[in-house]
């Protein structure tokens, strides 16, 4: 059987084909025998379909480059060793590429992201003065969750406009990570860290909508969306090699299709009424659906009647063949993880969406269910009776999600949003009263020798 290994570090993906079982070894080292570079290679994640994910993390710069050996016994397989020409930098090395197009090309960023095009279609030009006047008044009250950012000469400044802005740690960490890799355009923007999108003005209204940046979009709002804090953080964590992220889930998809329990599955909090309905349906149709609420907050009075289910590790979800995705307060942020498993996803129709939904189609990548769940049981029966078709949709969905949710795609997406925004600004971004500099983390454990020109000098 032909096997594929995908090696992930930061943005570098390598596809290696080789023959054999799992008894292979991957060695990552400096290309120069004289240079000793500390590199940690983690255990392969077996994706159960003949492909494996390997992650490695560097603690120093490999000046000449990296050599990646894939060995079966002591034999090199396929085109091993693979050479990555250097210098290769580690995650915390502050060494931004000055040419954004060269950087995007290295990452193989897609030439177009339909969601970004669509989001910016409402905003041919961005008036920063108008934003400065309006945003604090409209969205900056006590209960607000908006943070005002300015990026100048690749330095990041911000001030909070509301009280509920703790999640700025997620936007901070991503912006800092990007700024270490590529020089960001000068820009001034507002990120909404709350659940719901904010801008509900229509394009043809006066005054018109303004481009607030949010994690989640909805059909009746105009916010420009970024990948959610959840997948952003997950991606950055994945590169630190933790578990329970978008990569780990790919190596923990449970039993193979034929050995999965033929029921639809759901566990989650009570954040939306349909979730309670699910539990009721499950009680009446235990042969088709296993649904439980694991925590009550919004509908505490229902706990007695519906009961509380035990918490379950996410990887165990994939013991079941069908996964029900029902919105929480907004889009359910588990959806990307469910799509990466090898179960069939039954997705509730929803006005809410994340940055990658536009690329997924009903009946090709998932099975749609009505918002009020009236056809859920019927769809589960359909899946049970059409196993081959169901399996095919599950696989297509998984493949699409693997592609869309790769770490480098996330970086591409962020950069493209910032770039589109910057192009539309009609005046120069400024640092405002109350803004503070968000510094790069102190990196004392890793050594960074940047061979690029020094980052731009402070222009202030
Ligand atoms: C299904 O489970 C059985 C029993 O555990 C096991 O022997 C078999 O190999 C599994 N089939 C597949 C395709 O994984
Ligand atoms: C569920 O929604 C559909 C429209 O999507 C509607 O036709 C149907 O009557 C609703 N069913 C119930 C039980 O409310």
From TrEMBL:
GO terms for cellular component: endomembrane system. It comes from the Eukaryota. GO terms for molecular function: UDP-glucosyltransferase activity; UDP-xylosyltransferase activity. This is KDEL motif-containing protein 2. Keywords: Membrane, Transmembrane, Transmembrane helix. The chain crosses the membrane at residues 6-28. The gene is KDELC2. Protein glucosyltransferase that catalyzes the transfer of glucose from UDP-glucose to a serine residue within the consensus sequence peptide C-X-N-T-X-G-S-F-X-C. Can also catalyze the transfer of xylose from UDP-xylose but less efficiently. Specifically targets extracellular EGF repeats of proteins such as NOTCH1, NOTCH3, FBN1, FBN2 and LTBP1. May regulate the transport of NOTCH1 and NOTCH3 to the plasma membrane and thereby the Notch signaling pathway. It catalyses: L-seryl-[EGF-like domain protein] + UDP-alpha-D-glucose = 3-O-(beta-D-glucosyl)-L-seryl-[EGF-like domain protein] + UDP + H(+); L-seryl-[EGF-like domain protein] + UDP-alpha-D-xylose = 3-O-(beta-D-xylosyl)-L-seryl-[EGF-like domain protein] + UDP + H(+). Pathway: Protein modification; protein glycosylation. It holds the Pfam family Glyco_transf_90. Residues 183-428 form the Glycosyl transferase CAP10 domain. Belongs to the KDELC family.
